[in-house]
Amino acid sequence: MTTIDWDAAADTFDEEPDHGLRDPVVRGAWATRMARWLPHEPSDVLDLGCGTGSLSLVAAEQGHRVTAVDLSPRMAAAARRKLAGTGAEVLVGPADRPPVGERRFDVVLVRHVVWALPDAESALGHWVSLLRPGGRLVLVEGVWGGAGVPAQRLIGTLTPLVGRIDHEPLSDDPALWGRPVDDERYAVVARLAPVPPAPRHSEVVDVHLVLRRGDEVLLARRANTGYGDGLWNGPSGHVEEGEDVRAAMVRETSEEIGVELGPEDLRVALVMQHRGPGDPPRTGWFFEAAYGTGGEPDNREPHKCSELAWHPLAALPDDMVAYCRAGFEAYRAGERFVVHWHEDDDTIAHDPGAPDRAVPLPVSVPGSVPGSIPVSVPGSVPGSLPVPRLRPEAP
Prior knowledge:
Elements: H1 6-9, H2 17-20, H3 24-37, E1 44-48, H4 54-61, E2 65-70, H5 73-83, E3 89-92, E4 105-111, H6 120-129, E5 131-144, E6 147-148, H7 151-158, E7 164-169, H8 174-177, E8 184-191, E9 204-213, E10 216-222, E11 232-233, E12 236-238, H9 245-257, E13 267-275, E14 281-290, E15 305-312, H10 322-332, E16 337-341, E17 358-360
Parallel strand pairs: 1-2, 1-4, 2-3, 4-5, 9-14, 13-16
Antiparallel strand pairs: 5-6, 5-8, 7-8, 9-10, 9-12, 10-11, 10-15, 13-14, 16-17
């Protein structure tokens, strides 16, 4: 650690060209480098071992919000005078443990300080901890007359702590120092990896067929699927890549029961967000179609379905998948949007004695007054399907 009396050095510190930056050429050279090292947008910059505040002033003039710290009260006082009117804050304290509490910064800027610290490795780790995700540590260091920190040693210490390190030699630019130099001088800009954005929530979309034969609906008994086996539900499946919900319903209907529907044969019966016990949520689209359209139902997947049967919509079997039964019951009641959210200890099967997890969502009707009785939309009552129109077979 250096034994320099920094208070005593404060009065003459700015006489060095690269300290006071009084020469316009030297000042311009540092301003150009700082513009490259610091973010383009206004950022919170912590200048440690700021001396008389020359680099802090450059950062402030480039639009950054600066907090400057120096161990020497006289250096800090000089920095306050230099930074007056910029909004910068100047604190007295050690560079290796600056008195900034829990504050975090976009940039920690340190020039010619690491070489003077008793435990540089500990200081570097602490400085990194003061950065926000994606922040950067800007270090200007060198080796003077055998004293100092070689660049490769500093880079080796920083490598486990940060995501990216850029090394920039500075010895070959005499404008920075006000004279040619032949020792090692450099800048290291170490960047933290930004926090990756949280993944967007996504849900499986499934489709369900409400195939109507008068007052009856077609149900399929699940088998060998690993979910709800032995229980009834409507013909259903998942939307696949590149499909819209209508195309998925047409495909699943053909695959499961051999009925060949077109998009024009489907009417949206219900949209339900549902969650099985302990499972992530899904969104289900229930489509209504009339018996006779597209052919006679037939069990095309006996390895997944043990039987097909017609059931009265008004007297659905109890041994149904709970959310599917809730969807059919909501459809019968004229609901159009429902949330069905299982608790983790609920059963997959419908339980007549269990709490009803279905929550119908109110629908806004154009032109209606909030709070008024919902308007009945003609043709929307279950059971009002038109007589099916049989499509001719393709030649």
